[in-house]
Amino acid sequence: MNRNILLGLAVLASLAGALVGALPAAAQSSPKPGEPLLAQSPIDPKALAPRREGDDMVMGLASAPVTIIEYASLTCPHCANFHANAFPDLKSSYIDKGLVRFIYRDFPLDRLALHGSMIARCAGPDRYFSFLDAFFKQQRSWALADQSQASVAMKRLAKLGGMPEDAFDACLKNQEVQNEVLTQRLRGEREFEVSSTPTLIINGQKLRGAATFQELEKVLKPLVGRS
Fold first, then answer.
1. Complete edge-to-edge strand list for the sheet that includes strand 66-72
2. CB of 224 within 8 A of CB of 65?
3. Looking at residue 67, what is its pLDDT?
4. Which of the residues 60, 115, 156, 221 could staple to 95 if both were Cys, CB 3.0 to 4.6 A apart?
5. Exposed e or buried b per residue across 130-159, where buried means at least 16 C-beta atoms within 10 angstroms of its C-beta
6. Whether the Cβ atoms of residue 206 and residue 217 lie closer than 8 Å to each other
7. DSSP for 164-207?
8. What is the pTM of this model?
9. In this predicted model, what pLDDT tens digit does every residue of 128-143 receive, in sequence order?
10. How confident is the model at residue 145 (pLDDT cuts 50, 70, 90)?
11. What's the pLDDT score for residue 227?
C-alpha cells in the first residue's frame, strides 16, 4: 500500500471520528437487546401527567405503544386489591417510562360507587387519580357503611383531598357528571362486553379479574419489546 493511500485512509478515519463526536449522545448509543427504543430518550414529566381526553381520564405518554383501559367500580374489593398490589408496579415500570398509556373508565356497581366516581371527576384531572387512590385505600370505611355513614366518610376523604363540603354536595347534584359516569359504564358493556370488575383492555385484548403484576408483564413484555 503506497504512501498516498495511507494518507487518504488516515484522513477518512479522522473525518469519521469527528462526525461521530458531533452526533448527540442518544444517536451514538444503541438499545440493549430486548430493550425498547422508546426508553432511550428522557420523557417530559408533563407528557405523563394525568389529564382529560374527551370523557376519559388518562395518564402516561399519548404515543405509548400500549394502551390499557381499566373498567372498575370504587366499591369493588378486587379493584381495590389491583390498585393496591399491581398498579404501583405497573405505573413505575411501564406508565412512567412511556410504555403504557393508562385510561381509567367508570363501571359503578352501585350508587355508592357512582357517587365516588362523580366526586373524583369533580376533583379535576390533576387530582382525579389521587382521589381514586384514596377511595380504594379507604374502601372499608365508606363502601361497607350505610348510606348516611358512607356519605360522611366520603365527604371526609374529599375534604382531605382539598374539596370543600359545598363543592362535594354540589358535585353529587350535578346531572352532567352523573351522565358521564353512567355513559362510560354503558360504553364498556357495548364495546367490550364488560360485565364484571376489574376488566382490563390491553391493546384490544380483554383481561378479566384483578391480575397480578407478574400476570400483566406476561402480556406487556412482548408488546413493548422486552424479552
1. 51-53, 56-59, 100-106, 66-72, 199-202, 205-208
2. yes
3. 98
4. 60
5. ebbbbbbebbebbbeeeeeebbebbbebbe
6. no
7. -HHHHHHHHT-HHHHHHHHHHHHHHHHHH---SSSEEEETTEEE
8. 0.81
9. 999 999 999 999 999 9
10. confident
11. 65
Could you give the CA distance from residue 156 to residue 147 in angstroms, rounded to a whole number? 14
pLDDT of 225 higher than 70: yes
Question: What's the grid cell of residue 199?
Answer: 376488566
- The residue with cell 359504564 is 185
The answer to whether 142 and 153 have CB atoms below 8 angstroms apart is yes
State the pairing for strand pair 66-72/100-106.
parallel
Return the pLDDT at 10.
43
Distant-in-sequence, close-in-space partners of 172: CB < 8 Å, separation ≥ 6 = 115, 118, 119
C-alpha cell at 96: 412512567
Give the Å distances, CA to CA, from 2 to 7, 8, 9, 15: 9, 10, 11, 21
Q: Please check whether residue 198 is in contact with residue 71, taking contact to mean a CB–CB distance below 8 angstroms.
A: yes
- By CB atoms closer than 10 A (0-12, 13-18, 19+), residue 160 is exposed
> In whole angstroms, what is the distance from residue 114 CA to residue 36 CA?
39
Specify burial of residue 41 (Cβ count, 10 A radius: 0-12, 13-18, 19+). Answer: exposed
